[in-house]
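Sample intake sheet
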Amino acid sequence: MDVPKILETDFDAGFMLVTDLGTTTYISVLDSTKPSCAARWN
């Protein structure tokens, strides 16, 4: 499983800089048979 590398953070400001994972979005690979799992990402 590919995961982003965390480059910088400023949690007080709500900021996190991570590496790019390419052109595939997380929402596109979620299991469509379990739509409740995707609800929080829409």
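Comment: The chain has two helices and two strands. The helical segments are 26-29, 35-38.
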